[in-house]
Design brief:
five-stranded mixed β-sheet, alpha/beta, HARBI1_dom, 286 residues, cytoplasm
Length: 286
């Protein structure tokens, strides 16, 4: 009977994990902002309105194992310990920035503030911005939807936009769902970060595992893209029940005047073009 000890298995696992993470700089790269993403440039619904947008940002929960004394800090609204991972993704679903390790009780806005000020910080090119949900602050570098206005795609399936703000929110949601699809594909592909069962590894190791999965995810998008999987996730996103803010929205606030002027200008341009276009159909699938 041939067996390998648990210590040997653990040692080899961590050796491979470290090796994958060492590839991070090759496969997880932040945008330079010198080109307009083709997902925006090739669609009249988004171009030229979102031509300065480089991607979308959101957080997701990952189950972790922590000592009982630390459990309250990590226990999210789902009732079990998690870490809240902040991810910035491109519109072709690649991860461009990953910040792991924050306890599940931390709000997205708090984590984002840290991401913008740490040594390995989130870099946003001058004059560019990311799309975020209503749980994060609206600013010149983060474009949030109008609050108190219909937002989720499912809400527009039976009634078309009625004004400029609703049309803006619809287009915003149609573009920002890239981050939701990226999370869906990532977790469907790697059940180790999707499971709600307590993992075998420590919180630190589970954080490293998420980073490694993002690296492998980016590699697979380039080398072996699974369109069927992406289509399945897209249908799940479109049929998902509406929810105002999935994460803790404490700290969210209205944008500064410059950011508000930009958002209002984009919304008015969209609405004008929408009214002048006789074939202004609502296509949520793209």
């Amino acid at each position: 009977m041939y067996r390998r000890s648990k210590s040997t298995t653990s040692r080899c696992f961590h050796r491979v994990l470290r090796s994958v993470i060492a590839l991070e700089s090759l496969y997880i790269q932040q945008p330079q902002g010198d080109v307009v993403p083709k997902e925006i440039q090739e669609k009249k619904r988004f171009f030229p309105y979102f031509k300065n947008c480089v991607g979308a940002i959101d957080g997701t929960y990952v189950r972790v194992k922590v000592p009982n004394r630390d459990a309250p800090r990590y226990r999210c609204r789902k009732g079990y310990p998690t870490i809240n991972v902040l991810v910035a993704c491109s519109f072709d679903l690649k991860s461009m920035y990953v910040l792991t390790g924050w306890e599940g009780t931390a709000s997205d806005s708090r984590i984002l503030k840290n991401a913008l000020n740490r040594d390995d910080k989130l870099l946003i090119p001058n004059g560019r911005y990311y799309l975020v949900d209503a749980g994060l602050p609206h600013s010149t570098i983060l474009m949030a939807p109008y609050r108190g206005v219909r937002y989720h795609l499912k809400e527009y399936s039976t009634r078309a936009p009625q004004n400029a703000k609703e049309l803006f929110n619809l287009r915003h949601a149609s573009l920002r769902n890239a981050i939701e699809r990226a999370f869906g594909v990532l977790k469907r592909r790697f059940p180790i970060i999707r499971s709600t069962q307590e993992p075998f590894y420590s919180c630190e190791t589970q954080s490293d595992i998420f980073s490694a999965c993002c690296i492998l995810h980016n590699f697979l998008i380039v080398e072996d893209r699974d369109k069927d999987l992406e289509d399945e996730v897209l249908q799940e996103v479109l049929s998902a029940p509406t929810e105002e803010v999935r994460h803790n929205s404490s700290g969210a606030r209205e944008g500064n005047s410059m950011a508000e002027q930009l958002r209002n200008s984009i919304a008015n341009q969209m609405w004008t073009n929408y009214l002048l276009n006789p074939n202004n159909e609502i296509n949520m699938s793209t």
